[in-house]
Design a protein that fits this description.
By secondary structure, the chain is α/β, with parallel strands linked by helices. It contains 19 helices and 22 strands. It has a six-stranded mixed β-sheet with strand order 6-7-8-3-9-10, sandwiched between helices. The radius of gyration is 24 Å and the shape is globular.
């Protein structure tokens, strides 16, 4: 039988009287890649933060290499061989690669100065351990010059710098294009062959089935079960995660698109977009698909007034219902009935230190006010209805946005524009980092919007999402639209080929 390096037995945790973990059990074998799945709010992050020492459990046992342990801090966990790489990388962009890897244990000379020669050599060896070919020059560059995938590898190297035996990766592929995912998987397999155990948290079921040896599913703070990966498939995992059969992953409804709502005419953004032109109608889902960095976010920002109509930065025309608009700020866009769910919800879509209610009603404060005072009764009832309609998991509208899971944060951002009754909603990577059940809920909300005559623009790197939900599809490559299709004119495989 395989040796179990780590065992969690009946682990529990509560926050403000709400149960986050209810007797969760989890076993990790030595030298395996173990997938951890569950809905947003299922307890995955809480469980892993307990393992990382960021949280203390209220009950249960943690057994590491046959001995009971308790981690009082992340540093304590690292000293005992457990390290976590969070989705939001905790790195220092102004320092070099080498300094980031060994920031907590910089080698010193006898006089107490940093031993730069030893630092660069050790950093080079750390990256070579991951199967990479690097030079001394590579470890001297500033971290900020690297892309997200490269920074992630640096974060893994840092985690391994303290004799790590258990590595936890929290949503490491959520912001990566496919070729970078492939590189990360090669690194994970290298670590597995070296005897390191890896816990891989993801919402991408195909990736979990590709890379893992076993899979554990959590739901509502409890362990649903553990499967050998070769015994699992997407449908089985989706049903375990959601607690119900998900027959239709992309529940597209047919609507009758009417008059033109939005038109872009030869829009250029310096070094980002090149003569982008398209139209979309009321009650239509228009999908723009492309790799990360193709220019999708720049299209969203252009329409939402982020570039402020600056002719030195952006040229071209944007028309709403046939009228040319010089949208000089997001505030003007909101007043015109435009809503944006941005790619980075935590920094651009929410005020994390404010309540769910405050975030939800913020864009609609003008319409909710009379003589300068907010009609709080009306505001409160509208927020409550949206929380129920979107199935936002929270104990009250007063709960801080930062305390929500990623999927529930995304729902709050969507709730803002439902509250404001936007006529055009732009969704930039709308389902990144949320589970299969929450994705279906988001798609059903999109269906509700277009049935009310709202135009929905989806910008995504997820080909199945665009293929499954869009009425028309535009393929974006390096800031240019290279193909246009109506629904049914292109199959998913061909669309993937064009995107790549």
């Amino acid at each position: 039988m395989p040796t179990e390096i780590l065992v969690l037995h009946q682990v529990s945790k509560q926050f403000f009287g709400i149960t986050a973990l209810d007797g969760v059990s989890f076993k990790l074998r030595a030298g395996e890649i173990h997938g951890l799945l569950g809905e947003n709010g299922a307890g995955k992050s809480t469980l892993m933060k307990i393992l990382d020492g960021a949280l203390l459990p209220d009950g249960g046992d943690i057994i590491l290499k046959g001995k009971p342990v308790q981690f009082l801090s992340p540093e304590d966990a690292r000293q005992q061989g457990i390290a976590m790489v969070y989705q939001e990388l905790n790195l220092l962009p102004h320092l070099s690669v080498a300094e980031n890897i060994f920031i907590s244990s910089l080698p010193r000379t006898r006089t107490g100065l940093i031993d730069w020669k030893q630092l660069y050599l050790s950093a080079k060896q750390s990256l070579e351990r991951l199967g990479l070919r690097v030079t001394e020059a590579d470890v001297k560059v500033r971290l900020e010059s690297l892309n997200v995938a490269q920074q992630q590898i640096v974060a893994i190297a840092r985690a391994l710098s303290t004799n790590c035996q258990v590595l936890i990766l929290d949503e490491p592929t959520s912001a990566l294009p496919q070729h970078d995912v492939d590189n990360l998987f090669r690194v994970m397999r290298t670590l597995k062959n070296q005897g390191v155990s890896v816990v891989f948290i993801s919402h991408r079921l195909q990736e979990v089935l590709e890379i893992t040896d076993r899979i554990t599913v959590l739901r509502n703070g409890r362990t649903v079960g553990t499967l050998e990966t070769h015994e699992a498939d997407e449908d089985t995992l989706a049903e375990m995660i959601a607690g119900r059969s998900i027959k239709e992953k992309y529940p597209k409804v047919q609507t009758s698109a009417t008059d033109t709502l939005l038109e872009l005419q030869s829009v250029c953004v310096k070094n980002k977009l090149d003569n982008v032109s398209f139209t979309m109608k009321k009650g239509e889902i228009l999908g723009i698909v492309g790799l990360l960095g193709a220019g999708k976010t720049e299209i969203a920002r252009a329409i939402f007034g982020v570039y402020g109509g600056n002719p030195g930065l952006m040229t071209g025309n944007i028309l709403l219902e046939g009228k040319e608009m010089r949208i000089r700020s997001p505030e003007e866009a909101i007043d015109l009935g435009v809503g944006l769910v941005p790619e980075n919800r935590s920094t651009e879509g929410l005020l994390l230190n404010q309540s769910i209610g405050f975030n939800t009603s913020l864009p609609a404060l003008k319409s909710l006010s009379r003589a300068g005072f907010v009609r709080q009764g009306e505001e409160g009832s509208m927020v409550e209805r949206l929380i129920q309609r979107l199935h936002i998991k929270c104990f009250s509208p007063a709960q801080l946005a930062r305390s929500l899971s990623g999927g529930n944060q995304q729902k709050v951002v969507l709730a803002k524009w439902l509250m404001n009754r936007a006529r055009l909603v732009i969704l930039d990577e709308p389902t990144r980092g949320i589970d299969v059940g929450a994705k279906v809920e988001v798609y059903n909300l999109i269906n509700d919007l277009v049935q009310q005559g709202v135009g929905v623009l989806i910008l995504s790197s997820e080909v199945p999402e665009i293929h499954g939900m869009a009425d028309r599809i535009l393929v974006l490559n390096r800031g240019r639209i290279i193909e246009r299709f109506r629904r049914g004119e292109v199959d998913e495989q061909e669309l993937q080929r064009l995107v790549m």
